[in-house]
Amino acid sequence: MTMKRQAAELGRIRTGYSRPHRDPNKRPVPVKSTTFVFSSHSRDYVAAAAELWGGDVEEWTPQNQRIAQYRVISKAKEIRAILPAGDPLSQSYEMWSGGGCARRCDGEFEQKSRQSCLCLAQFGPEWHIRTPREVCRPTSRINVMLPELPDLGVWRLESKSYYAADAMAGGVDTVLQATEGKSMMPVRMWIEQRTRVADGETKNFPVVMVVPSLPKLRHALTGPLSTAAALDPSTLDRPAIEAPRPDYTAAARECTTVEAAREVWHRANRAGHVARDGSDPLSQELRQIADDIAKGVDTSTGVVADGEETSPDDEGVYDAEFIEEPPTSVDWPAVAAPGSGARA
User: The whole model's pTM is what?
Assistant: First the structure.
């Protein structure tokens, strides 16, 4: 209950790499990449990234480590990813040495020494202009899922740029405001080159932009998304498939009372399938069926129940049974009177 639950880390996404120095006795030279770099202990994951985004898989050993990994310097300047539920971004000021993380601070409190910010206490308010060897560096880590790559897990992108930290925090905050951390969110990530001029010196630096990837802005602000929508955001802009409309006429013809027939109309009204004022053809048809039921007409055959007056057919003929009755004595003619002996 006290351990943090998180998805397995499958690999890293980087915005730079290193190349060997001309002098073998010196440290490798860091290189800022204009495309994303993928690295992992699994060659299969890196090979899948290379097949999708280009580049060559190579064996590579990170600085200050002995265990070899695999990496690919891809050709992708932009990738699509999914932010998992919860808060996928962690940020802090950190100082690292050969022995690992020496300091981790939130800007006010240093966690390891349990003291106030050591950089601020040592160098004052302008401590951030000091070199990374002297003070902590802003460190941002964001976990994303790459749905086009194998297995279930996250890829971690890490940046030590102050400006990248600010940009990523803004994008993730927008996502969290929309989903409240309760669902995944599809995002676009790209490396944007920026320039800053300070004290007469121009500096170029890369910034990783993280922006919700949805057809329209309103989709990013309407609350948590379903997993299907996170995997395929284009479904959010497709019209909903309307359910088949019930056969209200057939349902009304099966009713035996006027009240039941009227309830069929109310059901259609609640579903929005008839006009509220009853002016549409379906309402008129349902009203006629209710009237027929009230008159005792069988709504399926049109036959009137016993004791009811019939109606003529198309030729004006009534469908009725005739009974012949003999005339009374006063109505009989003389020639046909019984016992008269007369012949016709």
Answer: 0.62
- How far apart, in whole angstroms, are the C-alpha atoms of residue 39 and residue 251? 64
Instruction: Kindly tell me if the per-residue pLDDT of 24 is higher than 70.
Output: yes
Q: At what angle do helices 281-295 and 258-270 cross, to 10 degrees?
A: 170
Express each pLDDT in 154-173 by its tens digit. 999 988 777 777 777 777 77
Q: Is 25 in a helix, a strand, or coil?
A: coil
Coil, strand or helix: which one is 52?
helix
Q: Give whole-number Cα distances, 69 to 38, 144, 248, 283, in Å.
A: 11, 20, 67, 72
With a CB cutoff of 8 Å and minimum separation 6, the contacts of 289 are: 249, 252, 253, 255, 261, 299
Calpha distance 184→165 (Å, rounded): 21
Nearest Cα to Cα of residue 41 among 156, 194, 201, 132: 156
Instruction: Give the Å distances, CA to CA, from 249 to 20, 89, 189, 275.
Output: 81, 58, 55, 15
3-state secondary structure of 45: helix
CB 65 within 8 A of CB 56: no
- What whole-number distance in Å separates Cα of residue 252 and Cα of residue 266? 11
